[in-house]
Amino acid sequence: MESIEQALLQTKYQSRYAQIYYILKTCRTPKRKADLYYTKPKKLQWNLLGELIDISLKTKLLAQVGEKYQTTQKGETFLKKFEELINLLKS
After folding, report:
1. Where are the domains of the chain?
2. Do the strands 68-71 and 62-65 form a parallel or antiparallel pair, or are they unpaired?
3. Cα–Cα distance between 91 and 72 in angstroms, integer?
4. What is the pLDDT of residue 51?
5. Model pTM score
6. Could you tell me the sign of the dihedral formed by the alpha carbons of 7, 30, 84, 44, in that order?
7. Contact between residue 7 and residue 85 where contact means Cβ atoms under 8 Å apart
8. Which long-range contacts (CB under 8 A, 24 or more apart) does 31-36 make?
9. For 10-15, what is the mean pLDDT?
10. In what helix (H) or strand (E) does residue 68 lie, and over which residues does it extend?
11. 53-71 burial, b if ≥16 CB within 10 A, otherwise e?
12. Phi first, then psi: what are they for 48, rounded to 5°?
C-alpha cells in the first residue's frame, strides 16, 4: 500500500491543503522557514511557502517559537483528519 505522501505526489498540481499537510508534518519538530524550503518533497516557491506559513499561523495550525515553527495540537488534528480523508479516497 502506498504512503499518503506518495499518493499526494502523484498529482501534477497539489492542493493548498496538501502543501499545508507537508508543512505541518515537517514541523512536528520545530523548523525554520529555510529548513522547510529545503526539506519538502517538492520545493515550493519561497513566497508561496511564506503565504502558507502565514495561513497556518492565522488558523493556529502552526505556532511560532522564536524563529522556528511548530505544529500545534490543532495542526495535529488537521494531519490526522487529512490522512483519514486520503485513506477514504484511496479505498
Report:
1. 4-86
2. antiparallel
3. 29
4. 95
5. 0.81
6. negative
7. no
8. 31/68, 31/69, 31/70, 32/67, 32/68, 32/69, 33/69, 36/69
9. 61
10. strand 68-71
11. beebeeeebbbeeeebbbb
12. -65, -40
Cβ atoms of 71 and 79 within 8 Å: the answer is: yes
Residues 23 and 57 sit within 8 Å (Cβ to Cβ): no
If you search the block for the grid coordinates 524563529, which residue do you land on? 67
Q: Give residue for cell 499518493.
A: 7
The string over 11-39, giving b where at least 16 C-beta atoms fall within 10 Å of a residue's C-beta and e elsewhere, is eeebeeebbbbbbbbbbeeebeeeebeee
State what percent of residues in the chain have pLDDT above 90.
58
CB 4 within 8 A of CB 83: yes
Looking at domain 4-86, its CATH class is mainly alpha
Residues 61-87 pLDDT 10s = 999 999 999 999 999 999 999 999 888
